[in-house]
Each structure stands twice: as structure tokens, then as C-alpha cells.
Automatic annotation (TrEMBL):
InterPro entries: Arginase (IPR014033), Ureohydrolase (IPR006035), Ureohydrolase_dom_sf (IPR023696), Ureohydrolase_Mn_BS (IPR020855). GO terms for biological process: arginine metabolic process; urea cycle. Mn(2+) binds at residues 110, 132, 134, 136, 235, 237. This is Arginase. GO terms for cellular component: cytoplasm. Its cofactor is Mn(2+). Keywords: Arginine metabolism, Hydrolase, Manganese, Metal-binding. Pfam families: Arginase. Pathway: Nitrogen metabolism; urea cycle; L-ornithine and urea from L-arginine: step 1/1. One of its GO terms (molecular function) is arginase activity. Binds 2 manganese ions per subunit.
């Protein structure tokens, strides 16, 4: 059982170049997240949404060179907004843990994980299990898109120009405590980064071969080894697009509906045994691209599985 879950909505889509994921938190709430959590037997409190600067209020015509002046990088879109939101989110996550509650961050695009990880790793050495079709390890120097949702792990590890950004780099997250599950779409330059890293990558081929339960059990072994707790980051695009159509960067060949539940049930079983879970985020639900809120419903259901909801 986890302590009270504190829901921290983070309606940000700047990391995905403004494509509608900012509506993710409300869609997941409408899909019945609070009820699902109640059925899982956990108490939850909804802390509402973090204030995210509205697109109308920022200067969208701002020359990218201005961002480059501030950060010394010119290939990371909306970096000033993302830095602002990430720092505030990190404070909220840290506060939540200090208050004895469990931070559940609802994205928003995957750049919100920069703030979740930074906050959760302030007072602890943190392992990470990263469910995703993508590796999200690009730096501004390698990114083909300039979208920061493809960079959160590089940011956390302080790679490339992120090394200079205190709001991004979380030194208590060590590379060898990060484990991917479900990878199947990696950019060419990113592939080298993953191969040369100390992270463990369970691709879809590993899931095929070994089965989800065994993969996630081992992922948790690695992420808990030498750390004080684990953050689970769940990008809905890890799921097969037929079951999760409402995501901005769908890739076919993903995990099935049942595998997704099995993955998070495995997380909750482990947590029930030794309380390893410290924080979680659920990201990339895009209601504009969804079909009748199906992906948000899946996100709510899967979250309940992570907190102990069972069939029987
Ligand atoms: N969190 C995500 N959905 N990331 C998608 C990243 C796609 C691509 N690798 C990029 O860097 O642009
Ligand atoms: Mn991602
Ligand atoms: Mn992804």
C-alpha cells in the first residue's frame, strides 16, 4: 500500500511543440482517476494543476536566438518555459515526499519528467524505470526535432548543454540505475548514446522473448540496487497505438493492453513487498488525437494497477 497519493497535474505541452498534451491532466481526471485509485484501496488528494504559462501570454514569435542567448543552445524549443515549469514541479514533488505523501505527476508531455525526477532525487538516490517507445536521451546537440520531450533523460543526467542547467541535472540519478522498458523507436544519433551508456535497455524484442513480468522484475532489481527508491515514468506511447491512440508520437508494435497492466501490477507487487516506489509520472496523453478519451481511461486504469488494483 502506498501512502496518500497526491495528484500533481502538469498541463504542459511545450516539450512536444504545443500539440495538445496540455489537456492530458483533465482528460485523465475525467476518465475517473480518483475512483480508480479508490478501487485500488489508496487514498488520493488532488492538488490541482501547476500553473503553466499560457501560449497566448508568451511571445511565440520570440526569436530562437533569444533562447540561445539565455541558455547557450538553439535547438531546444520553449526551453525557458520548460525550465520555469520544471523548477516549480520539482519543488512540489519534493514537498509532497517531505509531507509523507506520494507524488503522482500527470502530464503533459514527457519533459515534465525533468521536474519529477529533479524533485524526487533531491533527498534520495533514485532509480528510474522508464516505460517508453522512445529513449528520450537526445541532447539539444543531437535532437532531430528540437522537442524537449525527446530529451528528459539527457537533461536529468546533465548531458551536453544540460550540464550547465541546475534545474535539469539531478546528480542523485545515476545512469546505471536507469532502465528502459518497451523501446522501439530510437534516432540514429541517439542509438549510439543508448549503446554507450550504462543504462539498461529492455526493448520490445526483450519483452517478446522474456515476457513482461520477468522484464519488469529485473528492471526493478536494477533500479533498486544501491538506490533509496524508484521513480516510474510511464509514457503512454509505450502501448500499442491501437489501444492507446491518443499520443503525439505513436509507434506501432507496442506493448499490449494486458502487458501494460502486467507491467504495472508487477511494480505494485514489488512495492507491496518492500515499499520501493517513491514517485511516478504518467505522460503524453493527447486528448486531441484520442478516440473518445480511450487513452486517458487507459492511463487512469494503469495507474490504479500500479497502486495495487487487482482483477480479483
Ligand atoms: N516523449 C516522447 N514522446 N518523445 C518522443 C521523441 C521523438 C524523437 N526521438 C525526438 O527526439 O524528437
Ligand atoms: Mn517519452
Ligand atoms: Mn515516447
Amino acid at each position: 500500500m502506498v501512502s496518500t497519493v497526491r495528484i500533481l497535474g502538469t498541463p504542459m505541452d511545450y516539450g512536444a511543440n504545443r500539440r495538445g498534451v496540455d489537456m492530458g491532466p483533465s482528460a485523465i481526471r475525467y476518465a475517473g482517476l480518483a475512483d480508480e485509485l479508490e478501487q485500488a484501496g489508496v487514498e488520493s488528494v488532488d492538488a490541482g494543476d501547476l500553473a503553466v504559462p499560457r501560449a497566448e501570454e508568451i511571445d511565440l514569435d520570440r526569436n530562437v536566438e533569444e533562447d540561445a542567448d539565455i541558455w547557450g543552445v538553439d535547438n531546444a524549443k520553449y526551453l525557458p518555459e520548460i525550465a520555469d515549469v520544471s523548477s516549480r514541479l520539482a519543488d512540489r514533488v519534493d514537498e509532497t515526499i517531505a509531507d509523507g505523501e506520494f507524488p503522482l505527476v500527470l502530464g503533459g508531455d514527457h519533459s515534465v519528467a525533468i521536474g519529477s525526477l529533479h524533485g524526487a532525487a533531491r533527498e534520495a538516490d533514485l532509480g528510474v524505470v522508464w516505460f517508453d517507445a522512445h529513449a528520450d536521451l537526445n541532447t539539444p546537440e543531437t535532437s532531430p526535432s528540437g522537442n524537449v520531450h525527446g530529451m528528459p533523460l539527457a537533461a536529468t543526467l546533465g548531458r551536453g548543454s544540460f550540464g550547465e542547467m541546475g534545474w535539469a541535472h539531478a546528480p542523485r540519478v545515476q545512469e546505471d540505475s536507469i532502465v528502459y522498458v518497451g523501446l522501439r523507436s530510437i534516432d540514429d544519433r541517439e542509438r549510439e548514446l543508448v549503446r554507450d551508456s550504462e543504462m539498461t535497455a529492455f526493448t520490445m524484442a526483450d519483452v517478446d522473448e522474456r515476457g513482461m513480468t520477468s522484464v519488469v522484475e529485473e528492471a526493478l532489481e536494477i533500479a533498486t540496487d544501491g538506490t533509496d527508491g524508484v521513480h516510474v515514468s510511464f509514457d503512454l506511447d509505450v502501448v500499442e497505438p491501437k489501444s492507446a491512440p491518443g499520443v503525439g508520437t505513436p509507434v506501432r508494435g507496442g506493448i499490449t493492453y494486458r502487458e501494460a497492466h502486467a507491467a504495472l501490477e508487477t511494480v505494485s507487487e514489488r512495492h507491496e513487498r518492500d515499499g520501493v516506489l517513491r514517485s511516478m509520472d504518467v505522460v503524453e496523453v493527447n486528448p486531441i488525437l484520442d478516440e473518445a478519451n480511450e487513452t486517458a481511461e487507459l492511463a487512469a486504469e494503469l495507474t490504479a494497477s500500479a497502486f495495487g488494483k487487482r482483477i480479483l
